[in-house]
Amino acid sequence: MNTIKIHFLGASETVIGSKFLLETPEQNILVDCGMFQGIKALREKKWQDLPFEVSSIDVVLLTHGHLDHTGYLPRLVKQGFKGKIIGT
Q1: CA 24 to CA 43: how far, in whole Å?
Q2: Strands, sheet with 84-86, edge to edge from the N-terminal-most edge strand
Q3: Closest to 46 in 3D by CA, of 38, 60, 57, 35
Q4: pTM for the predicted model, two decimal places
Q5: What span, in angstroms and rounded, lies between the C-alpha atoms of 69 and 1?
Q6: For the segment 25-72, what is each residue's pLDDT rounded down to a tens digit?
Q7: What is the spatial distance between Cα 18 and Cα 4, in angstroms, rounded to a whole number?
Q8: What is the DSSP string of 11-69?
Q9: Fewer CB within 10 Å, N- or C-terminus of the chain?
Q10: What angle do CA 65, 17, 56 make, to 5 degrees?
């Protein structure tokens, strides 16, 4: 049986830092790549590496261009992401 896993990496305990990783048998898709903003505890999260190897991401799908959905992209590339970025 094929399974899909969803990892909530942001915007699950707060409305900022939207990142959701979809792991499928065919590819890994990061939906949004937002940075955290606001109080110091949240801002410090924007400097943390993601809890998996970013080179395993095949594509980043951006829902829209707000900073809390796109602001982590430079850091993602710095960590080794080389896949496609799809957005409007």
Answers
A1: 30
A2: 5-10, 19-23, 28-31, 59-61, 84-86
A3: 35
A4: 0.81
A5: 32
A6: 999 999 999 887 766 666 666 566 777 889 999 999 999 998 888 988
A7: 19
A8: SSSSSSS-EEEEE-SS-EEEE------SSHHHHGGGGSPPSS-GGG--EEE-S---HHH
A9: N
A10: 90
